[in-house]
Each structure stands twice: as C-alpha cells, then as structure tokens.
Write a structure and sequence with these properties.
Helix content: under 10%
Distance between the termini: 46 Å
Strand order of the largest sheet: 1-13-12-11-10
CATH architecture: 6 Propeller
Amino acid sequence: MAHTTKIPPTKGLQPRARSRARKRPPSGGTRPWWLPAVAVLAVVGIGVPAAYVALRDDGASIVETTAGLPDTPDYHSLLVSPDDPNAVALGTHVGLHRSADGGRTWRKAELGGNDAMNLAQPTADTVWAAGHLVLAKSTDGGATWQDVRPEGLPSLDLHGFAVDPREPSRLYAAVAGEGLFRSDDGGERFRLVSEEVGAGVFALAVLPSGTVVAGDLQRRALVASDDEGASWKELVQASISGLAVDPSDPSHILASGPGVLRSTDGGKTWAQTLELSDGSGPVAFSPSDPLRAYVVGFDRTLYRSDDGGASWRPVPKGKEG
C-alpha cells in the first residue's frame, strides 16, 4: 500500500492552490523544431493559484512580491485561475509562485523547497503535485498536502503526470529514464505500461476520450496513444515542452518549445506565432477568458496573448513590494 505522510507547510506560508510543468527542450541543431503532421489533439489544463502571506511579530500580514518572473532555477508549469484571467500560478523547481496582476508581480506560495513540475486537479478538492522526488496529494483544494509513496514506481523522478478525466483514480506518471507508469487505484500502486514513451516525457495529458498525449523530448515528437499507452502514433514532429487547449474550443491548441505553435484545426496544421531564440516553457489559456493566454520564455519573460495565441507581447514588470 502507498505510504502517506503530511507535508508540513513552509514557515510563514498559508497554502491555497496549484500549477503544471516543463523543462527547456534540447537544442535542435539545424533541424527545424517542428514539422506539421495530420493529427487531431486536445489537451486541457486548469489550475488554481496559490497564496503567500508572511506574518510580522505583531501578527500583521506582510505581502512580499517580486517584479517580473521570480528568479528561480527553472520554470516548470503555468496555470490560470478558472475564475480570474489575471490570477496566474507558476510552478518552479523550488515551489509555487502566484501572481494576482497578470504576471506583473509574483509572490511565493506553498510547497516551498519542493519541485512543482506537475500539478493535476481531477476534482475541485483533489490536487496532485509531482516532480523530482515529489508526489503529493491534497484533498482540500491545496490547503494541506500529504506525501505519497506508492508501490511499483522505480523512482519518484516524475517528469510528467496526468489524471484520466473519466476516472480520477487512474493516474499516469512519466518516470525519467524509465517509461510511462499507470495506477488504477488512486496512486496506491503503479505498473509499467510503456517503455517506448515516458522516459523523456515532460508534457503529459489524458483527453476526455481517454487518449494519452505526450510531448517526448527524446523523440522530438508529440505522440498519442488510444490504448492506454500500449502503442503510440506521432502527431507532430516537435520538441514540445508545453501544451494548452482553448477551454471554449478543443480544436484550438497551443504548443510551446522554441516559441509557440498554434493550431486551430485540432492539430492538423500548425503556424508559429511566437519565435524565441532562448526557447519557451509552460503555456496556458485562461478558462474564464479563452482569448487570454500566457507563455513563459526562457529569456525570463512572461508573454501574453489577447487573441487566442495569434500574437504575443511581453508582460511589463510591476513594482516590488
């Protein structure tokens, strides 16, 4: 059986929510970073931002903010609140950060010191966090977390993690250097379902149809499985580190890597709408305003679109507080 222990909150933090993950793809030399293929794809990601409040000795609250993206080792995940397009959560190698002003300023959040490489929210109350040596579960919307140690995983170096929306107890975990594993009992036990895909996966999602979609940086391809990981087909030749689907139109997809690719026909054709020489990481739509989207550039800049990813502009930095 899986072993669970409570994760104590970081001193001075009052947790409240979550985020999702990725890493910078390897350089592609002279090879184009993407090549279109005829395929249909839809990936959904929704998250709720986390809150950070420090307390003075007299009990008064102090809100500490940084201007622009926080200076952290990596930017893994990006999720927008389902209710507020300006409330954005950023998952990093050292925990979560939150912005309440569309990315102009950021505050530290829960899971401090833990790798927030992936976050999945199958229900309003249940949230999973997975990353390097991290697998944690919250059953109260992110207010408290329990450390999970399941049977069957060769390690807890989880670069990809997803929940089947048809069955919240079915989980998928991409273990670095090993393969793709699945649990059918809510994380108590996992079993290997694919050595072909999983070892190099950073973007992972399960569609409402049950199709598993993975951005495999080793294969430099976006691949999909219709039989729960037993076999795979290539959708797009691309070094993809992030995926997002328009919550109002599943045929409208954004894929990040060295910039942003945009598809408006379910993945059949693609156009590059943002070119970034340093590359890009996580990307996300706003569920409450699907024309709003964000992507994190590895030039330490957050970019915003107000036309569904057709064009982009840098988010200006706010004032530190």
